Amino acid sequence: MSDSVNAILEPGMFVRHPDRPDWGLGQVQSNIADRITVNFENEGKVVIDGRRVTLIMEFLP
Question: What value does the mean pLDDT of the chain take?
Fold first, then answer.
């Protein structure tokens, strides 16, 4: 896995897609071999190629 923030993502963490702000906040479902499954509030479940997209971590209060 790459040396990006994607490498530390675990189920339950919240993220945003850098190129798709319209998808809203997403919750990581799984992170296996650079394939990150995220359930976004406005887009639903999406599988992200972690080699191509670095997700943005969100820290909720």
Answer: 94
- H, E, C per residue of 7-40: HHCCCCCEEECCCCHHHCCEEEEEEECCEEEEEE
26 versus 3: the higher-pLDDT residue is 26
Q: Please list, in sequence order, all residues whose beta carbon lies within 8 angstroms of the beta carbon of residue 27, skipping any fewer than 6 positions away.
A: 12, 13, 14, 15, 38, 39
Per the CB < 8 A criterion, the answer to whether 49 and 35 are in contact is yes
Residue 5 is given by DSSP the state G
Domain ranges of the chain: 5-58
Q: Provide the pLDDT confidence category of residue 56 given band limits of 50, 70 and 90.
A: very high
CA 24 – CA 39 distance, rounded (Å):
10
